[in-house]
Design brief:
The complex is a heterodimer of chains A (317) and B (280).
Chain A lengths: L11 H45 L1 E4 L3 E5 L3 H8 L1 H32 L6 H9 L6 H11 L6 H8 L11 H29 L3 H9 L4 H12 L1 H16 L3 H4 L16 H11 L3 H35 L1
Chain B lengths: L12 H25 L19 H10 L5 H32 L5 H12 L7 H11 L6 H4 L6 H14 L2 H9 L4 H30 L2 H6 L7 H7 L8 H36 L1
The chains are: A mainly alpha (317), B mainly alpha (280).
Chain lengths: 317, 280
């Protein structure tokens, strides 16, 4: 970049030249500064996403490469496969079992943190601790604790006289175990986001409510939740985007990585991976990616509408 | 934003009890890891297992490090390299773009910023199939560059720096720089960049952690001979007989660096998450 310095000793022509440079500098620099992001994002983000659509309409083999155009054949095939629906069901089940309790717990934790605690930073750091443990490590730890035989959880259950649970054989139990891993890592993180939202609420509302005789619980449901709406929407949408793409935890839940002997915990992303890098069928894998994308968008929109509805009802009470 | 409720509202025993339980839940799996990772192959099946760590951690850790198929040092080096390069790049490009969005005037700014925000909600992970095709064609599949390049920019980072700079950097300061005859880039370098430092440091932290813990894409594109830590770690479970004392010793090796980091910068992570939430 050249400087736009003009001194009296320079000839008039040079001044004009440097002024013109300066004007271009002002005009072009803003675009220049944002361009690395847009160019790189177009290459590694946008292009692959759109190209996924193209690949999904063709025969495409990992080694052979592009084949014939087949239209929506891959989509029709997938929708006729039991495995696809099983994967969709598992994904939704794990998503719901992880997101709903996580949100409830995060709200409670945030509400407790939003008081005059001694050592506030210590408690906040404490709930965030699991966030720095990588999902692969979390999974290795928990799949060990949830082992069907000799696992810590089943041993403890046995000591209070409850039968061992087939955390790896039963579908729903495996979903609970996997959801526990997700909740372990993200509950505290989301609690801090909700806490920030709570602290931004005008405290006068609470004083007014206290004067009107509203109790703590009533205040929580009638003031905190409605006022927290934007933050809640943000947290729910982020959990949706992340939760529906879940891969690390189900992939490493056992040593084979196929989502269980009877696909008990095979999620859509595992299915995508198996089609693409197991069967080497990129066309079908790309079709799964697009379907998953559509599902995420639909559920994200649905969440948004429901959350809006609930909170505005609360506000109207 | 940190207005507190009146002093009459000091939380009682119940609140501390509840938080202690949560803390215990957060820390227990890690303690369990230490217990098993410092025992031997039979600790886990021992009904009378001790709740005090054993003395085998070094042995188990050496088994991980010396395992030919794990390539531990290579994985550690790769993880450090990828996380450092990606966070440096994201911070630089995000600060540059954020400065432009927050402080400069240009046509189409609003539309471009809306685009950035919209892309934050796009699950870019779903583009793995074409990304893999492209990397294979370029001959990059298996190389560490294939993990670095897709991480070089982040929409979240641009949004984050834009938010920060639009309130932390006064317009007058930028204008003063211009009036003093500095070029656009000099103004950015000497005025914008120093002002951005606190937010840039936090962004670097978050991107570092996200990259360090990332599994899906590195797992797909990297060779087993050239892994990052999460990719190497999952190999420990791959053998027919799984010795959990070795697996969890490996987990400790991969987790300790971030726990140490957390001890030093945890409070900044907390502050970063809370700041991002209010603005987002």
């Amino acid at each position: 970049m050249t400087t736009a310095k003009s001194t009296a000793t320079r000839s008039p022509r040079r001044i004009a030249w440097s002024q013109r440079l300066g004007r271009w500098d002002i005009k072009l620099s803003p675009y220049l500064y944002v361009s690395p992001f847009f160019i790189l994002f177009a290459i590694v983000g946008l292009f692959p996403l759109l190209y996924t659509g193209y690949v999904s309409l063709h025969q495409w083999h990992l080694i052979g490469g592009q084949g014939d155009f087949v239209g929506f054949e891959h989509f029709a095939f997938l929708l006729s496969q039991r495995a696809f629906w099983v994967a969709l069901g598992n994904t939704m089940s794990i998503f719901l079992i992880s997101t709903i309790p996580q949100l409830v717990f995060a709200l409670i934790i945030a509400a407790v943190l939003d008081t005059n605690l001694r050592g506030a930073t210590f408690w906040r750091m404490g709930v965030l601790l699991p966030y720095v443990v990588m999902p692969v490590a979390v999974t290795l730890i928990f799949s060990n604790m949830f082992a069907d035989q000799y696992g810590l959880v089943n041993t403890l259950l046995g000591q209070i006289g409850l039968g061992p649970i087939g955390f790896h054989s039963d579908a729903l139990s495996s979903h609970v175990a996997i959801a526990t891993m997700v909740n372990f890592r993200w509950t505290g993180y989301n609690a801090l986001i909700l806490l920030a939202g709570m602290q931004a609420i005008n405290r006068d509302y609470y004083e007014a409510a206290t004067i009107d005789g509203a109790g703590r619980i009533r205040q929580f449901f009638s003031i905190t939740i409605p006022q927290l709406r934007p933050t809640l929407i943000f947290v729910i949408i982020m959990s949706t985007i992340g939760g529906l793409q879940i891969f690390d935890e189900p992939r490493l839940y056992d040593q084979y990585g196929q989502g269980g002997a009877n696909s008990q915990w095979m999620t859509l992303t595992i299915y995508l991976y198996n089609l693409g890098w197991g069967q080497l069928n990129f066309g079908r894998a790309a079709a799964v990616a697009w379907l998953l994308f559509l599902i995420i968008v639909l559920i994200g929109l649905g969440n948004y509408l429901i959350t809006r509805r609930i909170s505005s009802n609360e506000a109207a009470r | 934003m940190n207005r507190r409720r009146g002093l009459g509202n000091r939380p009682g025993f119940l609140a501390y009890g509840f938080l202690s339980a949560i803390l215990l839940g957060s820390a227990f799996p890690l303690y369990w890891t230490v217990l098993i990772g410092s025992g031997d192959a039979y600790t886990i099946n021992d009904p009378n297992m001790s709740w005090i760590p054993g003395g085998n951690f070094i042995d188990n850790a050496l088994t991980v490090i010396n395992n030919q198929s794990v390539h531990f040092w290579r994985a550690l080096g790769n993880s450090i390299l990828v996380s450092t390069v990606v966070s440096a790049s994201v911070v630089f490009f995000s600060t540059l773009a954020g400065y432009s969005f927050a402080k400069l005037r240009f046509r189409g700014k609003r539309a471009l910023l809306v685009f950035v925000i919209a892309t934050m909600a796009v699950p870019v992970h779903l583009g793995v199939v074409p990304l893999f095709i492209v990397m294979s064609r370029l001959g990059w599949a298996g190389s560490i560059g294939a993990v670095i390049v897709p991480g070089l920019v982040s929409a979240f980072g641009v949004f984050w720096m834009t938010q920060y700079l639009s309130q932390a950097l006064p317009d007058e300061l930028v204008e003063a720089g211009r009036i003093d005859g500095a070029s656009m880039f000099q103004t950015f370098w000497y005025i914008g960049l120093p002002a951005a430092r606190p937010a840039a440091a936090m962004l670097a932290l978050f991107i570092f952690i996200a990259t360090w813990t990332n599994f899906f894409w590195p797992f797909i594109v990297l060779d087993r001979q050239n892994p990052t830590l999460p990719v190497a770690l999952q190999l420990l479970q791959g053998s027919f007989f799984v010795d959990y004392s070795v697996v969890l010793a490996g987990v400790m090796l991969a987790t300790i660096p971030l726990l140490v980091l957390f001890a030093f910068v945890g409070r900044h992570l907390v502050a970063g998450i809370m700041q991002g939430a209010v603005k987002g």
